[in-house]
Amino acid sequence: MEKDKTIRTFIAIELPAKIIDGLKEIQDELKDGTNKVTWVKPENIHLTIKFLGDIEADKIDSIVGLLEGAAAKSRSFDISAKGVGCFPTIDNPRVLWVGIEEGNVNMAALYNNIEDALSAIGFAKEERPFKPHLTLGRIKFLKDKKGLKERIERFKDITLGQYMVDSICLFQSRLTPEGAVHIKLEKIELTHKKYRLQKE
Fold first, then answer.
1. How far apart are alpha carbons 29 and 31 in whole angstroms?
2. pLDDT value at position 147?
3. Most CB contacts within 10 A, which of 70, 83, 113, 173?
4. Among candidates 81, 97, 84, which has minimal Cα distance to 156?
5. At what angle do helices 145-154 and 17-30 cross, to 10 degrees?
6. What angle do CA 161, 192, 186 make, to 5 degrees?
7. Which is it for the CA torsion 107, 108, 111, 113, positive or negative?
């Protein structure tokens, strides 16, 4: 990379294929052709921890080093994807998401470690409380609010399964006419591994 080049970056947790497949199925069920929604490509859905914005390419190594320090303080943990909801409210939906349950204490600790680490080089801490979620789509025009609310209610308790968080990733988000392309720049494993037997 050129040293004077800036790249758009964010920190996130990758999702296993079974969760991505489940998210795609939910997107398909929520689509009705009436409301205008910009759907996130399933392969682009991650559990975003922090959006860094445009940064200088030569700062990547420093950021990775700080993330390694934050990851060293965290133990791997299980979380589960469950329930469809929206921001800011069901009566004024703008963002559709699947929620995160289980492991929220561990998730918050990891998030705070990352926030503390990056604040040392000038990244402002987020003022809003961290609400981990998986973004399905962003509503651009809402014509059938009642129908959308009914579909959201139908999936409010759906469970997509449990998975183990054992790493974080630094991604580049490259904007193209066909939409954003996410490029993994670095994968950083949480230091304290939790091993478990896999079921046959």
1. 6
2. 87
3. 70
4. 84
5. 140
6. 75
7. negative
Q: How far is 129 from 112, CA to CA, in rounded Å?
A: 11
Q: Tokens representing 197?
A: 């037997």
Give tens-digit pLDDT for 54-103.
999 989 999 999 999 999 998 899 999 999 999 998 888 899 999 998 88
Residue 162's nearest CA partner among 47, 15, 11 is 15
Q: d(Cα 17, Cα 21) in Å, to the nearest integer?
A: 6
| The pLDDT value given to residue 143 | 86
Place of tokens 């609400």: 131
Contact 136, 152 (CB under 8 A): no
The residues near 56 (Cβ < 8 Å, ≥ 6 apart) are 3, 4, 5, 6
Q: Which of 112, 5, 119 is nearest to 52 (CA)?
A: 119
- 39: tokens are 């759907």
Residue range 95-118: mean pLDDT, rounded:
93
Q: Give the DSSP letter of residue 146.
A: H
* Active site (catalytic) residues: 46, 133
% of the chain with per-residue pLDDT over 90: 66
Element (H, E) at 186: strand 179-189
